[in-house]
Amino acid sequence: MPRKRTPVPVAATPDPEAPVVLSVSGLQKSFGHTVAVSGIDLEVRAGSFFGIVGPNGAGKTTTLSMVTGLLRPDAGSVTVNGIDVWGSPMSAKRVIGVLPDRLRLFDRLTGAQLLYYSGVLRGLDDVTVRQRSADLATAFGLEDALNRLVADYSAGMTKKIALACAMIHSPRLLVLDEPFESVDPVSAVNVTEILQKYVASGGTVVLSSHGMDLIQRVCDHVAIIVQGAVLASGTIDEVRGEKTLEERFIELAGGRKVAEGMEWLHSFSD
Ligand SMILES: Nc1ncnc2c1ncn2[C@@H]1O[C@H](COP(=O)(O)OP(=O)(O)OP(=O)(O)O)[C@@H](O)[C@H]1O
To answer: Using 50, 70 and 90 to split pLDDT, how confident is the model at 155?
Structure first.
């Protein structure tokens, strides 16, 4: 018999008076002569599904790493739930769940062990961790993989177990760098549903993605970052105007490059 699906809450615009969960002000970061982030300001309210888009190398990962306390900014401040991330990193990290860009998981553990240690490290008791691990494994379709080493997981399974670990302590803010990369379409729908329910119950998601359709569908707000600066930010409708988000993105990101001078590619080597 087909599994009955619980209705997914429609992505509503969050209450404009809801408390600010994430506040980013004047954030800057350079690597040698490369300016990765050149003064970013962002404000994200509770119950918001906030998308960050930008071309390759725009500074999205660098920004999210500074927001979550993983990379020290050269200048600027970040507060999460009123806590200064760089002033009180321990307290701030308690209320943040992170799916980083380059996953460095303890992959010699099984999925079950990784979930267990993620929960215990976040201060949850044994019974709670086991209960939540079972719930997360079901929600992410990882029940059959729980007793296998994470090192043997596929890229998509690894992404899902890392996302489950990021959520186990029910954080106020989830910061997800490319959460849908490598995730199959069915799993992506399931993960989206999980995130939408989390947001509908007052949680806040900030995610980066190259999937314009996805951002347009699930996010209520979006920021377009190009060369380390926010070029547009607001509700999806404010940012895209009369265009699609993709068209607006391409316009702001500098337009398409015409593939000239590549004639050699059409004269095959054999
Ligand atoms: N550790 C580092 N050392 C040197 N340069 C770095 C480092 N991390 C990022 N950069 C540079 O900073 C810039 C922004 O990189 P970042 O990874 O933040 O971009 P991104 O928007 O996440 O890109 P993508 O969409 O390709 O993931 C790039 O020019 C990148 O080469």
So the answer is: confident
DSSP 265: G
**Of all atoms in ligand 1, which is nearest to the CA of residue 63?**
18
Query: Helix, strand, or coil here: 152?
Result: helix
From 62, 101, 177, give the residue whose CB has the most ligand 1 atoms within 8 Å, as the site to mutate.
Answer: 62
Instruction: Looking at the CA of residue 62, tell me the nearest atom of ligand 1.
Output: 18
Ligand 1 center to 150 CA (angstroms):
27
Domains of the chain: 18-95+175-254 (3.40.50.300), 99-170 (no CATH)
SS (H, E, C) 2-14: CCCCCCCCCCCCC
What interface predicted TM-score (ipTM) does this complex get?
0.98
For residues 270 and 185, the model is more confident at 185
In this model, does residue 129 exceed pLDDT 80? Answer: yes
Tell me the C-alpha distance between 174 and 152, whole Å. 26
Sequence-distant (6+) residues with CB within 8 A of 39 are 26, 27, 28, 76, 228, 229
Q: 60 CA distance to ligand 1 centroid (A)?
A: 8
Centroid of ligand 1 to alpha carbon of 35 (angstroms) = 9
What number is the average pLDDT over the span 222-250? 94
Q: How far is the CA of 228 from the centre of ligand 1 (A)?
A: 10
How is residue 187 annotated by DSSP?
H
Q: Which atom of ligand 1 is nearest to the CA of 32?
A: 4
Residue closest by Cα to atom 5 of ligand 1: 31
CA distances (Å), origin 68, targets 10, 65, 79, 202, 261: 28, 5, 10, 19, 42
